């Protein structure tokens, strides 16, 4: 699963994290990629700053995905925003397109992009 939406499109961002967290709760193997403006969610405190009425808190959804799946930030997206591996929340990695393609092409993968 991949999302490019962050504070710029909060409803879309929340939808992506809701689907990812629900998939984790259902026992699915989940890999969530944060790209573009969604990259900011990988930093401590950023998800807590955002709230969407009638929706689960982004910080809770992200925590659920981190606990039961994988969360990755695009290498170029992180670099453009001036942060690195030492800056992100525990359990979140920074990786590039080759890793994304590897995951998408895995035999059991199902890609969703928001």
Task: Describe what you observe in this structure.
The chain has 114 residues and is an alpha/beta fold. The protein has a single domain (2-104), classed as Hypothetical Protein Ychn, Chain: A, CATH 3.40.1260.10. It has helices at residues 10-25, 58-68, 75-80, 97-104; strands at 2-3, 31-34, 70-74, 92-95. A 4-stranded parallel beta sheet has the order 1-2-3-4. Helix 1 runs parallel beside helix 2 (58-68). The longest helix has 16 residues, at 10-25. The N and C termini lie close together (8 Å). 35% of the residues are buried. The model has no long low-confidence stretch (mean pLDDT 91).
Short overview:
The protein is 36% helix and 13% strand. With 114 residues, it is an alpha/beta fold.
Query: What's the quaternary structure here?
Result: single chain
Biggest sheet, in brief?
A: 4 strands, parallel
Give the strand content.
Answer: 5-15%
What letter string, H or E per element, gives the SSE order? EHEHEHEH
- The average pLDDT score comes to 91
Q: How many beta-strand segments?
A: 4
| Head-to-tail CA distance between termini | 8 Å
Number of domains: 1
Shape estimate: globular
Helix vs. strand class: alpha/beta
Spatial order of the strands forming the largest sheet? 1-2-3-4
Could you list the spans in which at least 5 consecutive residues all have pLDDT below 50? none
CATH architecture: 3-Layer(aba) Sandwich
CATH topology description: Hypothetical Protein Ychn, Chain: A
Name of the CATH first level? Alpha Beta
């Amino acid at each position: 699963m991949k999302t490019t939406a962050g504070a710029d499109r909060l409803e879309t961002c929340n939808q992506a994290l809701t689907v990812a967290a629900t998939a984790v709760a259902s026992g699915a193997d989940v890999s969530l990629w944060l790209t573009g403006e969604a990259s900011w969610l990988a930093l401590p405190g950023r998800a807590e700053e955002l709230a969407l009425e009638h929706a689960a808190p982004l910080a809770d959804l992200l925590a659920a995905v981190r606990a039961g799946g994988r969360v990755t930030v695009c290498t170029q997206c992180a670099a453009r925003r001036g942060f690195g591996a030492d800056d992100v929340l525990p359990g979140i990695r920074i990786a590039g397109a080759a890793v994304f393609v590897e995951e998408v092409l895995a035999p059991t993968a199902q890609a969703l992009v928001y």
